[in-house]
Structures are given as structure tokens and as C-alpha cells.
Known about the structure:
The protein has two domains: 1-89, no CATH class; 106-176, no CATH class. By secondary structure, the chain is mostly helical. It contains 13 helices and no strands.
Amino acid sequence: MADSEEVIEAKEKKDDREFFFKAVEQNPALIEWANDEIRDDKEILLKAVKIDGGVLEFASDRLKDDKEVMLASVNQAGWTFCYASNRLKADKEVVLASAEKDGQALYYASKELRDDKEVVMKAVSNKPIILKYASYRLRNDKEVAMLAVSKGKQKVLDYITPNLREDEDIKKLLSE
């Protein structure tokens, strides 16, 4: 978080690229007060998101569609995938990188990637309840269901298919 003196200075220097180039090293959140041109400067934004992925919120739409910037951001803070462009929400490498840190990425992933077993397994492994956003086909996949149940027990039962709820292996996991 920026203190009030830093914010005042950032607002006064909103057009000063050199100021922001240096300032984001100490406080990436100051990028919020930069002008649009600076918030579209890849070099500055990359420096900022590598320290605090959350500042991706203030990046230009062009940079939210830049794979290198998005990967740097999600590697620092997986949840920032929510800011990705539609094109990157369909990029398996970006979704996997985000899901590695935060399974919530599956919520924002493209329909096609919600039906990709590798992506769903990665997301469910660290956030089992996210199974509810997987494709029906994968909610009916025993391996996916077993992973979700092993991590989330009763919470995920509503999201696996009815026939899998009756599966003996799944019942056994629930009783452990």
C-alpha cells in the first residue's frame, strides 16, 4: 500500500516515466496513479507485477493481453488471472501457471480449458471446490472426482456426477 506522501508525489508525476520506472521497485502500487501511457509501458509493468502481481489491475488492456506480462503476474499472484484477456484465458500455459498458485483460475478459464483434464486436475489439487466449474465430462471422470474428494471431502460431492457419488472408491475416501 502506498502512503499518502507517495501517492501525492505519484499523482504530481503521473506523466514522468523515469519516476515510475524507479518508484515501482519500492512500491509497485504507485502505478495506479500513472498516466495511461505509462500503464501501457511493458518494461515498467513487468517490473511492477514481478513484485506485486495485483498491480496488473492497473495495466492497459494491451498488457493484460501480453503473455509475458500475464505469466509474470500469475507466477507472483495466481489470482491475477482474473484480469487476463479472453485470448489468454484460453491459453493453456497461462491457465496452468495460474492454477498452480490458485485453483480459482478455472473459473476464468475458457470453456475448452474447463474441459482439459490437466488444467482441471491442477486447479482441483489446490482448490477442490472449483470442480463445480469443470466440464460435466470431467466432473464425471473418476480420477478427477477422486482427487477432488480426497482434498475436499463432503464439500465437493454436489459437483461430482450422481453415479460417482455411489462409487465404492469414492465412498471409501469419504469415510477415511
